[in-house]
Specification:
heterodimer; A: about 600 residues; mainly alpha; two-stranded antiparallel sheet; elongated; B: about 375 residues; 18 helices
Chain lengths: ~600, ~375
C-alpha cells in the first residue's frame, strides 16, 4: 500500500460519529456555551494528565535507551537513534499513519476541514512514536505532539458527548491549548499561540474556553511535576538603553537563521516525500544515524529536546564559538529529523537554536564591546524569542513566552526590538510561514493566520457613497418618488419610514407603478414595509451584504445621531470594494 | 435532534462520569510519576555521591559531569547546584561557577555560604568591589551551623583580601569590628593581632597579643608579636622585655633578634631614660657624641666629602654638622656635662641632627647609630 499521502490528509474522518450520520445532542445555545466552558476544564485536566505521562514517557525512553548519563556513551549515541527509528517508522507506516509531522497543522485541519475530528488513535500514536523518537535522540520537541495529544483528547470527548458541529470544530483548539500549556508550563503563551496560529480570531466565547483549559492543564502539570521551569533563567536585566543595538543585531541574525532553517525544510521535505515509498521505512533511521554521528563527533547536545543544554548555555558553560556551532548543528539535525517524517515537534529545537545563537552573538559582542552589561544568559533568553518570532512566526507569543519563562519584565523592550526585527526580516525573505508551507506541501489548503492578520479590514465606510440630495417619506406619492430618483440619478430611492429608520425601493418598480396609473398612490404601497436595520460606517463590510441583497439601496447612519444620514451603499458598491482589495483572486508563493 | 429533556438527564451524568474518569487517571498518573520520581531521586543521589568522590580525589572535571547528571534528575536541588558551582570554581571555570552561584543567590540572597563563594570568585576574577559586597553578604548572612564561627572566618578572609589590595584603612575597620566579637580563642587572637600589625594598627595588635599573654605568659608567637608591635610603637623597654622572654622560650628568628638587639641598644644609649643618675646620663651623652662623630666621618668618607678645617664653606649639611661637632668636641667631658643639663640637651640635639643628616646622605644606620636615630624620633614624637 502506498503511504505517500500527506500527513494531514491521512486524518480523513473514518469514524461514523464525525460524518453525515453524526447527530449532535440538542442543547440550547446558552446551555451549550456553559456546558462547553465546563467541558474545557475537564479537557484541561485530562490533557494535563496525558501530557504529564507523555513527558514521563520521554524521560523513561531516554533513560532506558540512551542511558542515565547526561552525555551518553558513544555506542548508544550511534546505535540507538537508528534502531529506534526503524521501529518508529514501522509503527507510523503500519499502525499510525497520521502521526507524521509536528501536530499543529493537523489540529488546524481538524478545525477547518474535518469538523473537529482528530482520531483518538492518532493521539495515542503520537504519544508512543514521539516519546520513542525524542527519547532515542531525534532532534525534536515534545510541545507540538502535546498540542496534538490534547486536541485529540478534546476531539474524542466532544464526539462522545455529541456536541454541535460548531462546538465540535472549536474543541480541538481548546484541547490543543491545554496540551501546549502543559508541555510548556506556560499557560499564557499556549493560549496566545493557539489563538494566534490555530484559531486566528479572538472572541469571548472561545477565549474563555481556551484559557480555562490551559489553566486547568497547567495546574495538573504542576501538581505532578512541580512549578520549576524547563530551564533555569539566570538574572537578566537591561541596564543601558544603548545596548538595544546589540539586541537588534541579534534580531537581524536570528531572522537570517530562521530563514535558513525554513528554507532547509522547504527544499528537503518535498524531495524526501517524492522518493519511493519503501524509503519511508529507513528515512528516519538515516536521519537518526546522521544525528548520531553529529553527537559522536562532539555535539551530543543536539540530540533530543535539549532543555538541559539550554540551561547550561544560559549559565556560561560553553564558549561563544561552540554555541554558534551548536546552533548550526541543531538547525541541521532538526531539519533531518523533521523532513524524514519522524513524529515530533519543532518548538523545543527552535528554542534551543535561539538560545545557542543568542548566547553566541552575546558572547562575541561582549568581546568586541566589553562595556556591554548583558550576560550570556540574557542574550540566550532573547535569542529564544527571536527564533520563535522568526521561524514559527508567532510574534505575540514569542514576546509573552520570554516574559512568562523568565518572569522578568526589565528586558521586554529588548525582546520586542529583537523579535520585531527577526519577524520582519523573515517575513521579507520567507514570505510563506513554516506551518503554511508544510500544509501546502501536503496539498492541503489551510487558512494562513499570518495572511488573515495582515489582510486589510474592510468596512462599510470604504464602500459608502455620499447620500443623495433628495429622499422621500412613506406618504409621498409614487410620482414624487420617481421624480426624486430621476433627479438624484440613482437606480433606487431612499424612503424615510420615521425619524430613525429607512427603507428603499428600486426606480424600476416606481416606473412600473407610475406607468400603471398608480402615480398618486403613496410610495408605501409598493415599498417593503419593514425598515432596514441600522448600518453604521464602522461596521465590517461583510455584515452589510445581507442588507444590500434585500434592499436596493441601504442607508448608512451616524452612530451618535441615527437621524443623520452619513451615506448610502448598494451591492455594486460593496463588490467594487472587494474587487479593489484583491480578495477575489488569491496568489500563493510557490512551494 | 434529540429532545431538550435528553440533555437535562445527560449533563449531570456526564459531569459525574468525567469526574470519575479524571480521578481514575489521576491515580494512574500519580503511580507513574511516583515511580519515575523514585528513579530520579535514586539516580540523582548516585551521581551526586560520585561527584563528591571525584571532588575528594581531585578530579573536578569528572565531578562536574556527575553533578550535571545529578541536576538533570533533580534540577531544583540547591545543594547539588551548589556543589556543581564549587566544582566548576575548583576547575577554574569561574564564569560558569559564578553563573550558578548567582542563580542560587537570586533564590536565597541571604545565604552566607553562597555569598562567601561568590566573594571568593570575585576575588579571583579581580573584581574587588563585588568581592567586598559579597563578603559583607556572607558576614551578615544566614548560616545553618556555627554562624558566629563562619562570620568570623568570613571577616578575617575579607580583611586579608583588603590587606592584599593595600586597603589598610578598610582592613583595619573590619578588624576592629572583628575584635569586638572575638571569642576566647588563642590562635584566632594571634591571627587577628598579626593582621592588625599588617594593617598598621600597632596599638590594637599589641592589645591582642597582651590578651593572649594574660592567659598564656609563655606563648612565643604572642611574645614576638607583642615585641614587634611595641618596638614599632617606640616602646623599647616593653619590646625588649617581651623578646627577652620569647628568647628564653626558644631561639628567636633573625628579625626578632635584630629588634631585641636594637631595643637593648636604645635602652643602653638613651640618656633621657628615667631613673638614670646624672653621671650615667652625662656618660651616655658623651658616648653618643663620639658615636655621632664617627658616623659622620664614615659617611663623609663614603661620600667623599671634605670635612677638614680651617673653614670649610659648610655648604653641605654634613660639613656644617662637622663644624659644630668640632666646635663642641673640646667641651665634651662627663664632668662638664653633668653640671650643665641644658648643654646636654644641646649636645644631644646635635647628635640627633647628625644621625638624621647621615641617614639622608648615606642610608639607614645600624647598631648604636640606629639606636640614636630611634631615640631622636621618639623624642620628636613625644614633643609633638
Amino acid at each position: 500500500m502506498k503511504k505517500t499521502e500527506s500527513h494531514v490528509a491521512d486524518a480523513v474522518p473514518t469514524e461514523p460519529s464525525s460524518g453525515p450520520d453524526y447527530t449532535p445532542v440538542y442543547r440550547s445555545a446558552f446551555r451549550e456555551e456553559r456546558f462547553f466552558l465546563l467541558l474545557a476544564i475537564f479537557i484541561g485536566i485530562l490533557s494535563g494528565l496525558a501530557v504529564v505521562c507523555f513527558r514521563i514517557a520521554i524521560e523513561w525512553s531516554r533513560l532506558k535507551l540512551l542511558g542515565p548519563e547526561i552525555t551518553p556513551t558513544p555506542l548508544r549515541i550511534l546505535l540507538v537513534p537508528v534502531v529506534v527509528s526503524l521501529f518508529v517508522a514501522a509503527l507510523v507506516i503500519w499502525v499510525f499513519p497520521a502521526v507524521r509531522g509536528s501536530g499543529v497543522n493537523q489540529t488546524k485541519a481538524a478545525l477547518y476541514i474535518y469538523n473537529g475530528l482528530i482520531p483518538f488513535r492518532t493521539a495515542v500514536g503520537k504519544f508512543i512514536t514521539s516519546a520513542l523518537a525524542i527519547g532515542a535522540g531525534h532532534s525534536l520537541g515534545p510541545e507540538d505532539p502535546s498540542l496534538q495529544i490534547g486536541a485529540g483528547i478534546a476531539s474524542a470527548l466532544g464526539r462522545r458527548l455529541r456536541l454541535s458541529r460548531d462546538k465540535l470544530r472549536l474543541i480541538a483548539p481548546v484541547g490543543a491549548a491545554a496540551g501546549l500549556a502543559a508541555a510548556f508550563n506556560a499557560p499564557i503563551s499556549a493560549v496566545l499561540f493557539v489563538i494566534e496560529e490555530v484559531i486566528g480570531r479572538w472572541s469571548a466565547g472561545i477565549l474563555g474556553a481556551v484559557v480555562l483549559s490551559a489553566i486547568s492543564s497547567v495546574v495538573v502539570t504542576r501538581w505532578f511535576l512541580g512549578s520549576a521551569p524547563l530551564f533555569r533563567i539566570p538574572p537578566v536585566q537591561l541596564i543601558r538603553p544603548a545596548e538595544l543595538l546589540a539586541y537588534a543585531v541579534l534580531g537581524v541574525l536570528g531572522g537570517i537563521a530562521s530563514v535558513v532553517f525554513a528554507k532547509g525544510i522547504q527544499i528537503l521535505r518535498p524531495k524526501l516525500k517524492a522518493m519511493p515509498s519503501w524509503t519511508q521505512y529507513i528515512q528516519p533511521a538515516i536521519a537518526g544515524l546522521l544525528i548520531g554521528l553529529i553527537g559522536y563527533f562532539g555535539a551530543p547536545q543536539v540530540m533530543g529536546a535539549g532543555y538541559e543544554f539550554i540551561d547550561q548555555a544560559m549559565h556560561d558553560q560553553f564558549t561563544w564559538e561552540f554555541l554558534a556551532i551548536l546552533a548550526g548543528l541543531k538547525i541541521l539535525s532538526t531539519t533531518l529529523s523533521f523532513v524524514s517524517g519522524t513524529p515530533g515537534g519543532m518548538f523545543a529545537p527552535t528554542l534551543f537554536i535561539g538560545a545557542m545563537l543568542g548566547g553566541a552573538i552575546g558572547g562575541a559582542e561582549r568581546i568586541l564591546f566589553p562595556h556591554l552589561t548583558g550576560t550570556v544568559g540574557t542574550y540566550a533568553l532573547v535569542g529564544m524569542g527571536v527564533l520563535f518570532a522568526g521561524f514559527l512566526r508567532a510574534p505575540l507569543t514569542s514576546v509573552f513566552m520570554v516574559l512568562e519563562v523568565s518572569g522578568n519584565y526589565s528586558i521586554i523592550v529588548a525582546v520586542i526590538v529583537a523579535n520585531s526585527l527577526a519577524y520582519l526580516l523573515s517575513r521579507i525573505l520567507q514570505p510563506v510561514p513554516i506551518f503554511d508551507l508544510l500544509s501546502r506541501q501536503d496539498g492541503v489548503e489551510l487558512p494562513s493566520m499570518e495572511e488573515e492578520r495582515e489582510a486589510p479590514v474592510l468596512r462599510v465606510e470604504d464602500a459608502m457613497r455620499v447620500p443623495p440630495v433628495s429622499t422621500v417619506t412613506f406618504h409621498d406619492s409614487i410620482e414624487d418618488a420617481l421624480h426624486a430618483a430621476d433627479t438624484a440619478g440613482e437606480s433606487a430611492i431612499l424612503i424615510r419610514v420615521d425619524s430613525r429608520s429607512w427603507t428603499s425601493v428600486a426606480r424600476d418598480r416606481l416606473k412600473n407603478a407610475f406607468d400603471s396609473g398608480d402615480g398618486q398612490q403613496p410610495v408605501s404601497s409598493i415599498a417593503a414595509p419593514d425598515a432596514m436595520p441600522q448600518v453604521y460606517p464602522d461596521h465590517p463590510l461583510h455584515s452589510a451584504l445581507p442588507y444590500v441583497y434585500e434592499w436596493p439601496i441601504v442607508a448608512v447612519v451616524h452612530r451618535a445621531n441615527q437621524q443623520k444620514l452619513e451615506g448610502v451603499v448598494t451591492l455594486k458598491d460593496v463588490l467594487r470594494v472587494y474587487r479593489r482589495a484583491g480578495q477575489v483572486s488569491m496568489k500563493h508563493e510557490p512551494v | 435532534m434529540k429532545s431538550s429533556q435528553e440533555w437535562f438527564r445527560r449533563e449531570p451524568a456526564i459531569i459525574v462520569s468525567l469526574l470519575v474518569l479524571s480521578a481514575a487517571l489521576f491515580v494512574v498518573t500519580y503511580l507513574v510519576t511516583s515511580a519515575f520520581h523514585r528513579e530520579q531521586v535514586h539516580l540523582a543521589g548516585k551521581y551526586f555521591a560520585a561527584g563528591q568522590a571525584a571532588v575528594a580525589s581531585a578530579q573536578p572535571a569528572t565531578a562536574i559531569e556527575d553533578f550535571h547528571t545529578a541536576l538533570l534528575y533533580q534540577p531544583g536541588n540547591q545543594d547539588y547546584r551548589f556543589k556543581l558551582a564549587q566544582a566548576l570554581a575548583l576547575a577554574g571555570r569561574n564564569k560558569e561557577a559564578l553563573s550558578h552561584f548567582l542563580n542560587l543567590w537570586e533564590s536565597e540572597p541571604g545565604d552566607g555560604e553562597v555569598n562567601l563563594e561568590i566573594a571568593r570568585l570575585a576575588m579571583r576574577m579581580n573584581e574587588p568591589a563585588e568581592a567586598s559586597r559579597f563578603f559583607h553578604g556572607a558576614i551578615y548572612g544566614v548560616w545553618n551551623d556555627s554562624p558566629e564561627q563562619h562570620r568570623l572566618e568570613a571577616r578575617i578572609e575579607l580583611a586579608k583580601f583588603l590587606l592584599s589590595r593595600g586597603a589598610f584603612g578598610q582592613a583595619d575597620a573590619e578588624l576592629v569590628a572583628l575584635s569586638a566579637e572575638l571569642p576566647d580563642n588563642t590562635p584566632l587572637r594571634l591571627e587577628v593581632g598579626s593582621l592588625f600589625t599588617q594593617a598598621g594598627d600597632l596599638a590594637r595588635a599589641l592589645e591582642q597579643f597582651r590578651t593572649v599573654l594574660a592567659s598564656n605568659r609563655n606563648n612565643v608567637v604572642a611574645l614576638t608579636g607583642a615585641g614587634h608591635a611595641a618596638f614599632e610603637l617606640g616602646q623599647y623597654q616593653t619590646a625588649a622585655s617581651y623578646l627577652t622572654r620569647a628568647a628564653g622560650a626558644g631561639p628567636l628568628d633573625s628579625s626578632s633578634q635584630n629588634i631585641l638587639h636594637i631595643s637593648q641598644l636604645v635602652l643602653e644609649s638613651d640618656p633621657f631614660r628615667r631613673g638614670l643618675s646624672s653621671n650615667e646620663r652625662a656618660a651616655r651623652v658623651a658616648a653618643s657624641f663620639e658615636i655621632a662623630g664617627g658616623r659622620m666621618r664614615q659617611c663623609a668618607s663614603l661620600k667623599d666629602v671634605d670635612l677638614a678645617p680651617p673653614a670649610p664653606t659648610a655648604s653641605t649639611p654634613l660639613a656644617r654638622d662637622y663644624a659644630k661637632w668640632r666646635e663642641l668636641q673640646p667641651k665634651i667631658n662627663v664632668r662638664d656635662l653633668r653640671r650643665a643639663p641644658d648643654f646636654m640637651e644641646g649636645v644631644m640635639n646635635l647628635v640627633f641632627q647628625i644621625e638624621s643628616d647621615t641617614e639622608q646622605a648615606c642610608g639607614p644606620p645600624a647598631g648604636r647609630d640606629l639606636a640614636l636615630l630611634l631615640i631622636s624620633r621618639g623624642r620628636s614624637g613625644a614633643e609633638k
